[in-house]
UniProtKB/TrEMBL annotation:
It comes from the Bacteria. It comes from Costertonia aggregata. This is DUF4281 domain-containing protein. Pfam families: ABA4-like. Keywords: Membrane, Transmembrane, Transmembrane helix.
Length: 139
């Protein structure tokens, strides 16, 4: 399987989970997938495989910006980095939904947090933390 094919597969694995979290966050299938972190675990396996390949084929140096830029010229390293983003952004999205179970913020306000986390990772997390802080100030 080529890295391009794996890239398509991991994207197709993550996207339905985001749709479920946005459209059907309380559905028992969605909750099962969130509770057991099925998709992030699958992505973690793919990540581990491609990190091993990247290490074996050229090592990994995160010691300087130049070495990181050099690392991301290698297809397997870029794929591993992409899977890393997919897995961790998805985990943050799941965490947001779990936190919101306790907070009880209307889902309409959580959807932008999830969309931003999906597309821009930390920006969605920042928005959720802002909304969470405002909720605690004004319960």
């Amino acid at each position: 399987m080529t890295p391009t094919e794996v890239f398509s597969i991991v994207n197709m694995a993550a996207l339905p989970m985001w749709i479920l979290m946005i459209v059907l966050p309380k559905w028992k299938v969605t909750r099962f997938l969130i509770d057991f972190k099925i998709i992030p675990l699958l992505l973690a396996i793919v990540y581990a495989i491609y990190i091993c390949i990247a290490i074996r084929t050229g090592g990994m140096d995160f010691g300087s910006l130049a070495s990181v830029m050099e690392l991301f010229t290698k297809e397997n390293a870029v794929l591993a980095g992409w899977v890393h983003y997919l897995a961790f952004d998805l985990l943050i999205g799941m965490w947001i939904l779990n936190e919101n179970k306790k907070l009880g913020i209307h889902h309409v306000l959580i959807v932008p947090c999830l969309l931003l986390t999906f597309m821009l990772g930390p920006v969605g997390f920042l928005l959720f933390m802002t909304i969470k802080s405002l909720k605690k100030i004004n319960p």
